[in-house]
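Hi Prof. W.,

I finally got the Acyl-ACP--UDP-N-acetylglucosamine O-acyltransferase prediction working! I wasn't sure whether to trim anything, so I left the full sequence exactly as given:
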Amino acid sequence: MKIHPTAIIDPKAELHESVEVGPFCIIEKDVKIGEGTVIESHVKILSGTRIGKFNKLSSGGSYGGLPQDLGFKPETKTYLEIGDHNILRENVVFHRGTVEGKATVVGNHNYLMGNVHLAHDVVVGDHNIMVQNTMLAGHVVIGNKVFISGSVGVHQFVRVADYAMLAGLTKVVKDVPPYATVDGHPGLIVSLNVVGMKRAGISADVRLAIKRVYKVIYHSGLNTKQALAELKKDANPAPEVQKVIEFFESSKRGVVDHRFVSGGSDEE
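And this is what came out:
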C-alpha cells in the first residue's frame, strides 16, 4: 500500500494492498476499502464504512459519521456502503444509516461534486451526477442516471426516478417521476429530460409514448387515479411507459405537479 506517513489508520481497518492513502487522513477500525481506491488528503473514514473498488475520494471528505438524527443512539450498529468506480470530490459528507444493521448506500459509477451531502439512510443508484452543494435529506432514494444540478435540496423520504433531471437551486418536496425535468420552489415538472433519454438510446417512438403518458396524467382533466386507469387500458405498453405508471402507483409522498401550461404541453 502507498500510505503517507501522516495518515492515521487503525490496525483493525481492512485495506486492499493497492489502496493509496494521502496526507493527514484518518481511517478508523471496522472500515473496509477495496482494490484500486485512491484517497487524497484530509479524508476521514469512520467505523462501519465499506468502500468498494477503484473509487477516488478527493480531499476533505467525511464518510460514515453519526447520523444527524436526534433520536439516534450512537451504539446502534449501522453502515455506509459505497460501490465501485465512484468519483467523490472535495468536502463531501456521507452519514451512515439509522436502522440496526442497515446502511446508507451509494452504488457504482457516480460522480458527486464538491460539498455534496448525503444524510442517513439515503440510497443512490448508478451512473448519477450531482453538482456542487447538492443536499439529500434522510431516506431519500435516487435512481439511475439522474442529473442533479447545483444547490438542489431534496426533502426526506423523496424518491427521484431514473433519468430525471433537477435544475439548479430546485426545492424538491415530492417524488420526481422517470424522465422528468423539475425546476422551481417547490419543484415542478417543466419538461421531459429529452437529452437524457436520447443519450440513453430511447427511440423517438418511445419518447413520444412517454410524452403522451404525461399528457394523460397532467393535462387530460383526469385525477391521477383516473389517468392511471386510462393508461393501463393499453395491454402492451413499452417498458419505459410501464415504469412511469408503476412509479405513480407506488408513490407515498405524492408526485410533483406540472407547471401550468397555456395552450398545450411543452414537454418536448
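The chain has four helices and 28 strands. Does that look reasonable to you?

Thanks,
D.
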